[in-house]
Amino acid sequence: MDTKSMHNPETSDYLANVFESSPFALISFDPHLRIMMFNRAAQELTGLSCAEVVGCRATRIIEFERLHNIIDALRKKPQATADGYITKLRAADGSEIPVVVRISILLDNRNKLLGVLIVATDLREIQKLQAKLLEAERLAAITETAISINHEINNPLCSILGNTQLILMEKERLEPGMVKKLKSIETEIIRIQRVSERLARITRPVLKEYVDGRRMLDVEGSSVDEDR
User: Fold this and answer.
1) 91-95, long-range: CB within 8 Å, 24+ apart, which pairs?
2) Domain parsing of the chain, residue ranges
3) What is the pLDDT along the chain (228 residues), one digit of tens a residue?
4) 3-state helix/strand/coil string of the chain
5) Considering Cα of 11, then 13, then 24, then 83, what sign does the dihedral take?
6) Residue 5 CA from chain centroid, whole number
7) CATH number given to 3-122
């Protein structure tokens, strides 16, 4: 597009509409890191209006220590605009929004630096999806482990339980202390079987602190499919 077209009022309105209607958050900064433009998507993302940010320094929406890529771009360092990078934008409520930012240097027709434009993509939905995928992978691992437990442990447990119960059928001939021990064995075997069966029915795993900062599956606290 030539310079005359750029200065055409209709063309300028068209470009302004493209900027404003973009589904991506678009924010431009001048060489002094003042916010010059803040489109509708950026306002929806942060909850901040143009009136609240335009004319303010970049630190209004980005922590100073996260501005180094934008500063490098203003210094015309090519590597600053080569790839997107993950950072956070400050929202109206003070929370921080994870985003992927891509930077474009803005130059006039004489190659004079006008500032930079950043395109920010919200990562929150992606992070939620990643969390769901991680949970699905964890659940699959638990189910596979439960199947192995049922196969490798329950079979011998059934044999032990059956023999224990056969002996208890003749408890009149046994010492009271022996009967008590056999009943304890019976109770613990049934408990192990119940835990292994519950493992296979877990639909939403819950973890709890164990030792040395490690976590363990909370079998009782996890949600299960009662119909499985």
Assistant:
1) 91/45, 91/46, 91/47, 91/48, 92/46, 92/47, 92/48, 92/52, 93/47
2) 3-122, 127-224
3) 444 444 555 666 777 788 888 889 999 999 999 999 999 999 999 999 999 999 999 999 999 988 988 888 888 765 555 567 889 999 999 999 999 999 988 888 888 888 999 999 999 888 888 888 888 888 888 778 878 877 788 888 889 999 999 999 988 888 999 999 999 999 999 998 888 888 888 888 888 888 777 888 888 888 887 766
4) CCHHHHHCHHHHHHHHHHHHHCCCEEEEECCCCEEEEECHHHHHHHCCCHHHHCCCEHHHCCCHHHCHHHHHHHCCCHHHHCCCEEEEEECCCCCEEEEEEEEEEEECCCCCEEEEEEEEEECHHHHHHHHHHHHHHHHHHHHHHHHHHHHHCHHHHHHHHHHHHHHHCCHHHCCHHHHHHHHHHHHHHHHHHHHHHHHHCEEECCEEECCCCCEEECCCCCEECCCC
5) positive
6) 45
7) 3.30.450.20
- Residue pointed to by tokens 């999806």: 129
- The amino acid sitting at 55 is G
Q: How many residues does the chain have?
A: 228
Task: Specify the residue for token string 């630096």.
Answer: 113
- The token pair at 100 is 């992927």
